[in-house]
C-alpha cells in the first residue's frame, strides 16, 4: 500500500473517530437537557398539586384538624418548590391558617422527595374515608377542588415517570466506553431520579380518571 493510500485510510479512521465522539457528545448533551427540562415539568406539577392542596385546606371543606395538617404539608411543598418568601401562589387565608410566617425551602432532592411524600401521606389521610370524599363531591366547590387535585396528582405521576426514565437514559449514556474514556461528561453532575411517595388516595378512584376535569 502506497503512502498516499495509507494516509487516506488514517485520515478516514481519524475522521470516523471524531464523528463518533461528536455523536456521543451531542447525544449526552441532549440527554442532559432532556433531564433538566423534565425536572422543570415535575417541579411545576408538584407546585400545582401543592397549590390545589392549599386551596382545599383553606376552603372549609375539610375538618379543622385535617385542614391544618394539609395546609402545613402544602406549605412545606410550596416552599420547597418556589423561591423563599414567594407567597404569590398561596390561596387567601393560608397564612392565617398556619402559625409560621415564612417557608423553609428544602435543600436538595432528598428533602424535596421527603416533603412531597409527606404531602401525599397527609392527603391520603385526609381523603381516606370514601364517605367524606363522597360528601365533598356532592358540593360543587368540593367536587371542583377534588377534580383539580386529581388532575394535578395524575400529572405529577406521569411527569415523574418521564423524568426518571430520562435520568436512566442519561446514566446509561454516561457509562458508555467512549464517554468514560474521553470524559465527555466533563464536570456535569450525574443526574438523580426523584424518589417520592405519590400513591393515589384510594377514595378518589382510579388515577387519571378525572384528569380532564382539573383546571390548567
What can you see in these coordinates?
The chain has 216 residues and is mostly helical. The protein has one domain. The chain has helices at residues 3-57, 64-81, 94-97, 109-126, 130-138, 140-174, 177-182. Helix 1 (3-57) packs antiparallel against helix 2, helix 1 (3-57) packs antiparallel against helix 6 and helix 5 packs across helix 6. It is rod-shaped. It starts with a helix and ends in a 34-residue tail after the last helix. The model is unreliable at 83-89 and 210-216 (pLDDT under 50).
Number of helices: 7
Number of domains: 1
Kindly name the structural category: mainly alpha
Major sheet: size, sense and barrel closure? none
The whole-number mean of residue pLDDT values reads: 82
Helix content: 55-70%
What is the radius of gyration?
Answer: 24 Å
Q: Note the beta-strand portion.
A: under 5%
Entry summary:
The protein is an all-alpha fold and 216 residues long. It is 67% helix and 0% strand.
Explain the layout of strands and helices:
Elements: H1 3-57, H2 64-81, H3 94-97, H4 109-126, H5 130-138, H6 140-174, H7 177-182
What descriptive keywords fit this protein?
single chain, 216 residues, mainly alpha, 7 helices, 67% helix, 0% strand, disordered C terminus
